[in-house]
Structures are given as structure tokens and as C-alpha cells.
Design a protein that fits this description.
single chain; five-stranded mixed β-sheet; 10 helices; 20% helix; alpha+beta; six-stranded antiparallel β-sheet
Length: 598
Amino acid sequence: MTQDCQSPSHGDGCADLAESERVIGIYFDPPMAVARVGAAKEPLDAYTWALDTHAHQGVQTRIVPAPTLRPVPVPKRGHKVNRLSVDFPTEISFKDHKGRIRPVAPFFELWARVQDVATGQIRAVPVSETTLSQRKGSLRDLHFEVIAANRKAEARTKLASCAAVARIEFNGHHHGRRALDAISPHTEDQVQMVRPDAPLPLGHIEYFAPDDEARDCRWRLDQVRLRFTPGKGDTFGPPNAIEAPASPLAPGDFEPPITEYGNIHKMTKPENRILSQDTAWSGYNFRTGNTPKWPTPMDSYDGARVGSGNGWGLIDDTCDLVITATLTLGGRLFTAKARSFAGPPDFAPDKRPFYSIQDELEDRDLPPAVLDGETPDVILDLFRRIFETSSLLNLDQRRTWALTGNAGELGANNPDDPDWDDGLSPRLGPRSMRESDAPYADLTPYYTPGQGDTRKTVSGPADRLPYTQVVQQIHARMADSPVLRDFLARRPDRMRALVRPPFARLADLPRRDGVGKPAKVAMAKDPETGPVHYRDPRSTMDQTYDMRMPPFMRHSMGYPLAITRRQYDLLMAYIDQLEAEGRADEADAKTKAGDRHD
């Protein structure tokens, strides 16, 4: 994607260094980016999200093409390298003409922070050959190190010889594309999972030659830019990774170890069976020693839920990547880092998540959100994102999965017994989201009259996913501004009870020696339905799933998902404000009515 030099985070992109300015640091923009694997040769074009209001389709997010950087080959010293040009696509295609998914390949721009020695003012300028030459430097004073690694197998076996790591270095005047071919680090007598003669392809990094004549203020094509293009999204395995049965069970369900079941499928392509057979990763089992093993979920490797549960020794070509730039200028050494994560394709790119990496970083780094004139729009946007997420959620599957896990966590003899969680609120068993789950369940029981107190959905020809349909209908209304405000103002206590609180900060939790009662960390206001507190991750009950929003969704660490602390506090403060305004309006109306009566 391109970077608009008029963005508030940057200075004048057309201006270079002035005589009175000195370089005080360098940084990458963006400092962090998500890449997505794909087998197509051409990466995905840049696009943005925009809000589309349609009279018949309601409010929804749409994709809008954005200015896109495209490589242009140019000769340089007997070989070809790529420069960049700016294109303006009119449509976005997520697959090429052969049906292959186009990868998401982020750019990383190098910027310098400069300070005026007279005024102390700090601004940003693009790092380019011109910028460096103004301080008697050149691109030869710039050095890059790129490390890409897939450590999924290492995280389970605790052996670095089961990791796949690629490391390359190059100088600032050596432009071109470099493959990220990974191998396994090892010591004597260790078997490398990935051998040097058969490296794991994790994609490539490209360093573009500058176009010194392109000095458009909106994009500096003479600026230092790198691009990470991830792998194709292939799986790799040892020579015996040929065919295997697929489990027909839902995640979290298991059959006895002696059972073989499911359709037979091809595990890897013949050319991808390049990993060593005799490693701790082949045959790994999270049940070994009858002790749980991190990371979570423990059973998320290939082979975990088939037969004995031994791993098949497969890995993919996703990875984490770190780019380090070092610049020697004026006798000083400056360093900048950027990170990228290669993940799977986004199966719903026009739907915005309500909980993103950005929300996580804001929750960690920014001060608490405060009520202001922008708050209603912020809350509305949050609920619109919640609707977009819920429109992708199979709530019937998630409910069954979560209730099964609750029964196992709390030792229920029969997970289908409607009364195994008797006395608990919210309900954690088959009565969750049913009438007896009051005050949490409200409309759902009436919208799903054919469903009893069952753990698994009772599906019929006309209602195969009844819970999924209900959650989408309910959240669709909340994407409308007047409806949302009216609901929050009219039923504030219901919303306080219905939204799952986030976990308390570590500093807010009292010390607990051994096993004790859940810590109570008071919120700004407790709902009338009973005391509710920020959750304590050490409490078993706070690790169980229920219908509070977001219902039955899983956090990356295996716990029930909640909105962020920052989102939660702002929502509760906004509800308090609406409630206070409603009481003031009622008092004013009574006063006016009394005056008329007199």
C-alpha cells in the first residue's frame, strides 16, 4: 500500500533536509503489518474500507480501491531490479485468472526524524539517496537484516531443531529480490527438521531501486522501500506424510485411540515431503505424560484428533518476520525495526472485526477513553463491527463447542443433562440461551421455539442454524444509530449485564496463595441484576463460556472473548451518561406536568 505524505504522522514528503536540521532517529512505516499467504504471482492491490448506506441493504462496509504500488523492471549493472510506479485500480480481485489467491504483501517505508537545532521542532522526512547525501552519507551506509521464522513445532517440542528460520543480510545499495529459505538451527547429534538441501520457502523480501525523478508529494518513489511477500500457503511434511483420515468430529471432541474414521485425504504434495522423519515433531502428542502442554489450543496440530493423537509432522509456510535497518551517519548509529506476520487469507475481507490488533495495542498503550462529542460515533462503529463479526459466526457450532468444554472443565457427569449447572448464572449447560437463563436470555428463546434445553442444536429443514439467524437479526438492528441509542438508554441494566467484562489488569488483582475465591475488582458501576466484576483469569468460573456478549467466542489464549478494557469502560460510561440524561428528562417532564396541573 502507498503512504500519503500529507498524513499527520509525517512531515512534508516533498521536502528534504534543511541546513539547520539534524537526524535524530529512523523508523519504519508501518512498524507492524499483517501479510497473508497466497499462490498467485501478483499480490493483492491496495484498498480501504468505506461505509456504504443502502436504502434496502442497510449499513455495511464496502471495499474501495486505493492507489497501489507496482513493480517495474529496470536494468542495473547487467541484471534487472524493480522500481515502483503508482497505479489506480478500479476494482479489487482477490484471485487471479487461474483461481489462485493473491497474497497480501505489505510495504515498509524508511523514514528519518529530524530536528531543527535552532527551534527544536521535530519532523519526518523520507530516507532516500538525496536525504543521505545532504549529510555526507549514501545508501552504502545503510544495512538490512531480515529474519523470518516458523516456530510452531518448536513451541510444542521445545527444541530449536524443530524450528524453521531464514536470515539474510544486504547493503543499502544492493537492490533486488531475496528468497527467505528457512532451515532448522541445531547442535551436534540433533536432527534438523528442515535441512539445508531442502529449505522451507517462507516467501521473499524485495528491496526496490529508487526512482529519483518521481518526486510527487503524495508518494516518494525515491524513498527506501521494502516489501515482504509471504509463502503460497502450502503444507510440508516428512516422506511418509502421504494420506491420512480426516476427523468428522467438532473441535474438542475425541474418539477412542483405536478408532479410525473419516475421509482419506492427501496430506502434502509429493514435492513438499521434504522434512526429516526422525524428529520430535513427528509423532508429537499433547497427551504425553497426561499433562497439558502449551500453546493453546493444545490439539491444533495435524493428527491430534485422529487415532492415537500422534502428530503427522506437518508444518505450513506461514511465519513471523523482523526487519532491522541500521544507518551509520555523522558518526552515529541509528536503528529501526519492523515486524510482519504471515497468516491465512481473509475469508471475509469486507467485514471488519470488532477486536483487532489495533484495538489490542490501543488498550495497552493509550490512556482510558473519555466521553466527548465523538463517543456516540465510536460506540456506533463498535456495534457495527460487532454486527459484521456476528454475521460470519456459526453460533450454533460455537454454542455446542463451548457448552461441551464447560461440562468437561467443571466435571459434569452428563453434558446433556439440562440441570448439571443448576444454581449457576449465567447458565453453562444446555439451558444456556433458554428461558431459564434469565436475565441474560431475552428474545432468543422466543425466536427459537423449536429448540429445547439441549446442548446441540435441533435442526430442521427451515431452521438449520436457528441461533445463528437470531444473533444476526438482533445485531443488525444495533447497527442503526437511533435504534442503538434508544436501546442503551431504555435498558441500561440489561446491557451492563449482557456484555462480558474483560479481564482485570494484573496490577488490579489481589494476591492469592493457593486456591481461593475469585478476586473481586469493582467496576465503575454494578448493574442491578447483581454484582459483576472484571474477570480474574485465575478463576475457573471466569474461564467458562456463556451467552454474554460476544457469545461463546474464544480468545487466542483459550478463554472466553470480551471486548477490550478500553472499549468496555467507554461503553459503560456512555450507558451511565444516557441513563443520567434519561432521569433528568423524566424529572423535567414531571416538573412541567406539575406546573401545568397547578
